[in-house]
Amino acid sequence: MNDTPDQSAAPEADKGADAPRLELSASRGFETWLAGAGVSLAFTTYQAGKLFLLGVQPSGRLSVFERTFERCMGLHADRNTLWMSSIFQMWRFENALEAGQMQDSYDAVYLPQVAYTTGDLDIHDVMVGKDGKPIFCATLFNCLGTLRAD
């Protein structure tokens, strides 16, 4: 997590000579709004290939956590699970903490549990059906898809 006293975070870009600098700026009062709503935000940006998790530290500063996944786009979250698509995989992350447990002031720690290789389907949106399986928009083929165990 990045400590950001100036209300902006500059996650480290991929280590390459031509890698552009990535900067994340928050509107004034954003941290107050997050804290008041009691929420954190997760989002992806395929242009930079990043998954971001934003929250508020006990000090009131913005907490920014990011990881790199090539062409990450679709994202679905509930209290314990994150599903995210990348260039040719569907990832499932699970919260490793029990209800009420904290880890370094964080109430959730999402760890990758499995990555399903899908091939390049250009997955944009993800949701979870009543059966617990992800359903996604495979825009390369203009259809909905899901995963199967075999």
Topology:
Blueprint: E1 2-3, E2 8-9, E3 24-25, H1 30-37, E4 41-45, E5 50-56, E6 62-68, E7 75-77, E8 81-85, E9 89-95, E10 110-117, E11 123-128, E12 134-138, E13 143-146
Antiparallel strand pairs: 1-6, 2-3, 4-5, 5-6, 7-8, 8-9, 9-10, 11-12, 12-13
Q: How would you summarize this macromolecular structure in one to three sentences?
A:
About 5% of the residues lie in helices and about 40% in strands. With about 150 residues, it is mainly beta.
Mean pLDDT: 88
How much of the residues is beta strand, in percent? Answer: 35-45%
Counting DSSP E segments of at least 2 residues, the number of strands comes to 13
Largest sheet: 4 strands, antiparallel
Total number of domains: 2
Rg on CA atoms, Å:
16 Å
CATH architecture of the largest domain: Beta Barrel
Notes on the protein architecture:
The protein has 150 residues and is mainly beta. Helices cover 5% and strands 42% of the residues. It folds into two domains: 68 residues, no CATH class; 81 residues, Thrombin, subunit H (Beta Barrel). The N terminus is likely disordered. Strands 1-6-5-4 form a four-stranded antiparallel beta sheet. It is built from one helix and 13 strands; from the N terminus they run E-E-E-H-E-E-E-E-E-E-E-E-E-E.
